[in-house]
Amino acid sequence: MPARAGIRRAICIIRALSSAVTDDAMSSMSEDVSSPLRARAIALLWRTLARLTPHRLWQLARLIGPLILTFSRRERDVTRTNLRHVYPEMPARQQRRLTRDSLTHSSATMLELGFAWMAAPERVETSIRAVHGRELLDDARAEGRGVIVLAPHYGNWEVLNFWLSSHFPFTAMYEPPKIDALDPVIRHGRERMGAQLVPTNPRGVASLLKALKRCEAVGILPDQEPSWGSGVFADFFQRPAYTATLLPKLVARTEARVVTGVARRLPDGKGFALHFLAADERVYSHDEALSATGVNASVEHAIALEPAQYQWEYKRFRKTPQQAAQHPDFKRFRIY
């Protein structure tokens, strides 16, 4: 019984860390961590974990990931379902291994939040062992263009945010966490290297447009399911996924260059490698559905670097065309 209680506590910790920064994944325990006392405990845990190296944090994740696989049915089942959808030809044994590895990487990401936000900047910078494709960013700015970075939930996107805001004028949308008391902690962590955070509303979109017209970089989450009326259905691994349509609006008004950016965790947690990849050419289409298809293809390209590092426990296919058909604004929910 004590061992099982300890396991539940470890899983609760990971869920609590995740609930502060993600919309859906691993956040089913958010109701249990909403008090200021719990928020202070989470912030203290982040500060403690920030003292560890990425290698040590990876070792912890290797212990916690299998526990989530065994004892946390929700994360396990959502991950397995998503993997069956996107890799239907993959042998069952390989899917089980990928499920385990994905939950381990997601655990590592949550444990690394304190490192990305609170560790000395030189420690975080040193943990970034390589940057591939930086010339895509530099060339766009040399041409007098802004850069839109599609940053999917892959590897450690907070390390990506750290590097981008350290090396470029960088603006990103920000939605306050479910745990109000953690807002200043998270905001400080993301802004400490100079990033400008703007709200997820029309005023925030206007700020993104201004930044792009100044030939700066902006970050967009391409794989977070938008609210009804803010997206279209487009194929993601040959399955319709409701996808935001903000990107074509930004491109049409700024002629910005679009790249996909990820921070891939190196083997054994020995740091990170950043990858900037040219986006699928369809993202530049003024047709929202075709652009959304290009966005999803760009995310697929990044996932192919190492599929286990994608956050498969997010319900990416929650909204369906069948649900859209019953919605009063059905005509807006096109399928490409």
Automatic annotation (TrEMBL):
This is KDO2-lipid IV(A) lauroyltransferase. GO terms for cellular component: plasma membrane. Keywords: Acyltransferase, Cell inner membrane, Cell membrane, Membrane, Transferase. It is found in: Cell inner membrane. GO terms for biological process: glycolipid biosynthetic process. One of its GO terms (molecular function) is acyltransferase activity. It holds the Pfam family Lip_A_acyltrans.
